[in-house]
Amino acid sequence: IHMNSTDQVKVWGNGKEFDCTILEHAFQQLDMPCPWKFWDTQDVRTVITLAELLGFNPKKERAFEGTPHRALDDAKHQARYVADTISALYYRKAASL
Known about the structure:
Layout: E1 11-13, H1 16-29, E2 41-43, H2 44-53, H3 58-61, H4 71-96
């Protein structure tokens, strides 16, 4: 992250208080600065709640690719259904204009 990021790092957690806190602790243990500010943590669960308010749950509607509970595959799945939700919100807004 430190070598390949800009000053504007945003980190996502599926429960940001859990995932992001674990990562922040790991940086502390390695005596490395955390590459994001506390206000730059994002929560996957909040995005899913927004989707449910629109009447769908992309987490359940999108087929899982890979091996469940394997960290990288879980993260890719989460990124895909977050992108699905953001896309649905965007197109819903565009249609209402």
